[in-house]
Amino acid sequence: MYEKRHIVANLLMLIIAYLIDRIMNYLTFGSNLSQLVNNLSILLLVIPILMIIFSVVITLMFSSIIVSFLYYVTAIAYALVISNNVDFNLILSTFLNLLGYYALATIVIGVILGISRRSFPDEILLNISRINVNISKNKIIYGGLFIMVSFLVFYEVLSNLFLFIGSMASFVLTLLVSNDLVFPLIALSWFSFPFLFTQLAIYSVKEKGIELGYIEGVLAPSLVNRISNTKYGWRKFSNLKFHLNFDESKNYNIVILGTSGSGKSSLAKSIIEKFSDISYLVFDLHGEYEIESGERIDVSKNSLNPLSLNGASPRQRALEVAYMLRSIFRLGNLQTIDIFNIIMDTYAEKGIDENDESSWNSTPPTFRDVLLMIERRKKLVENSQDLSRLSSIEPYIQFLSNQILSGNSLDMKKIFEGSIILDFSKVATDELKYVLIETILRDFRNYLYRRGISRLWKFLVIDEAPFILGKETGLEIVERLFAEVRKFGVGMILISQLTENIENIFQNSSYIFIFNVIEPKELDYLSRALGGSDRDKYEAIYQAIRSLERGHVVTISGDSRDILLVKLNSLK
């Protein structure tokens, strides 16, 4: 419980108190004048030097001028205990005379380090906002008992009001410190006061939500790190659990980044398994997901018609498909317009009218129907230019006239409402995979609009995200989902090795987990995204992400937005 650095600081102050006691004894009981002058001259030279050294050491240990001055008060308390036969006023006046040395040294070291690195980060002041006042009846009862003990020992027995005041000050601090185990320290008066004070600003998190691992450190300014020419370092912790908690988050979205094999998919599986009462839909491009609670569907053995409306209007779906094909095959504007017009004509041929919503439930056309429409148009055109335009889009429609896109054997209601793993690993081509994935994403968005506002009930997991985000329409639909799905009770989990095209997705995510990354371009983006304009923080994040061990992530906590180093339970 008592940190090692506090033990060191107490020992340093005890040395000062002992030396002051020597001075008091020489002044009070000295007999040999020459020996007295000689001893005093040595002590008066040694004590200021030691005080200067000790003030600097304590300031560096705690990255706080405030704590350093509190330990000076502790030195007074030690002197009073050691020199209980010396007048209190004499001791106090001696310490006040020496205070200038101590204060000057402490402030000078702060100014030097502050100027060299542009600011002076006092850790206590930086973290004082973390104080969570929680005064309970038990705290008052426990504290009251120890105050009574302190009163009897310090006031009644020792007749030392200064030490009793220290106990009262410690009692006030313990009411603010959440751990009941610190209450016995009230009886130690000023000797425990600096320790209790640092506990006010100790890093703490709300233990709510699902546990994912342990926080090993938080990135924070530190005077100690400035010696090695950096302003930030990891303030270490032990046994501080990290929880995924959406209670106060702006949304339920998560981004997971890292190199291949670093553990991204394992983390995603761990998250969705821990939310036992929430269903999920996983887009599994490589057949890697095995989740006991989920049903795996081999998409290659099923069919899905992208021209099915599923709540969209004919015009909306024709536009979506036309732009999707432009993204996949890099088509020109005229080709995109021609595809849109032909699809609209095909809908009309099937009796589906944009202005008659009752017709939208009719059997939709397929790409084979669109291909037949092109062939009929080719026979009717009167010039080579129109024929050439139709011929230029025909191969793409021909390619999509695939059996897997010609029907609707996938039960979309089951997919959207159950816990499903969609396995795309056996789908023949990347183009077909993409068409299927984007179609499902757009149908899911329309399904949410029909379902309405809800609490959290669903996670949508998109693995190998660059496969989707690399296409213009894929990026558009994913960004819309990230921005909109919270009100519908849906959380998005996006997994990627690359940071390209994720700027808006970053901004709409409550949690970002970063595994080891070694590519300089990716490191640069992530360090800037997390560190902002602070170059020192950028460097610290850059080095941390590059050297992460397996099972460790750098993350931003959902409430305070602190940058944390976390060891995950799922990758032990």
Automatic annotation (TrEMBL):
The chain crosses the membrane at residues 7-28, 40-62, 69-86, 98-120, 140-169, 181-203. One of its GO terms (molecular function) is 3'-5' DNA helicase activity. This is Putative integral membrane protein. It holds the Pfam family DUF87. It comes from the Archaea. Residues 239-442 form the Helicase HerA central domain. It catalyses: ATP + H2O = ADP + phosphate + H(+); Couples ATP hydrolysis with the unwinding of duplex DNA by translocating in the 3'-5' direction. The keyword Flavoprotein does not apply. InterPro entries: HerA-like, HerA_central. Keywords: Membrane, Transmembrane, Transmembrane helix. Belongs to the HerA family. It comes from Saccharolobus shibatae. The keyword Transferase does not apply.
